[in-house]
Amino acid sequence: MWRGGRAYIEEVFDDGDALVMRRGAIHVRIALRAIQRIELEEGKGDGVIQVWLKQACEFGEQVTFLPVDHGELLPRRVHKRLVEDLQSRVRIAHADEDQALDV
């Protein structure tokens, strides 16, 4: 999906320790520990979620998606909570990975 000159991920599913993203026929599973950072872009129009990866996947180093549920855009008040939850889980995944490397 293209919107405002950007290619958006069409679907994102929360798979516990990963996000599963789909654009067209391509599905990519991205472990939370592979995410560098997540931000909510709250400018004009719909808030979009931007995800920066430690290494590029099939969709690139940065992926962007609209927070939707069953095709309906989630209310803006939910966007911030969603991003904060993902940020927290990414931090935990990084800490777990660092701890595993120390063993």
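^ that was protein a. below is b, sequence first then the tokens
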Amino acid sequence: MGADSVVVFYGLRIILDQDDIEAAEAGDHPYVVAAQRVGLQTYWDRESETKPYFLMIGHRLAWLGPEHHTQMALDRSKVTELMEDVQRKLSLMGARDTPQLHLQYKFDE
């Protein structure tokens, strides 16, 4: 049994269609393949059983919680470098949306 946690991710957050879930899980969804090709990370999940699945593409900064890290720190130069790198790699993928900082609460289900 797990514990609640928070995923801190910089990049894009896309809602997945029901038909896309199996491909995301298998790692062969087109967005997952494109992200891996340019060196970006992906994370997919859902907020609860009643909410749709989502896919994040970019860089996971931290996973915070009792079963993960309990704190993290990044200095300004590291954050700036990371943001520029993610933006560059998303552009290589053909993504036009602007990346954002996402803090995703993950319930233990």
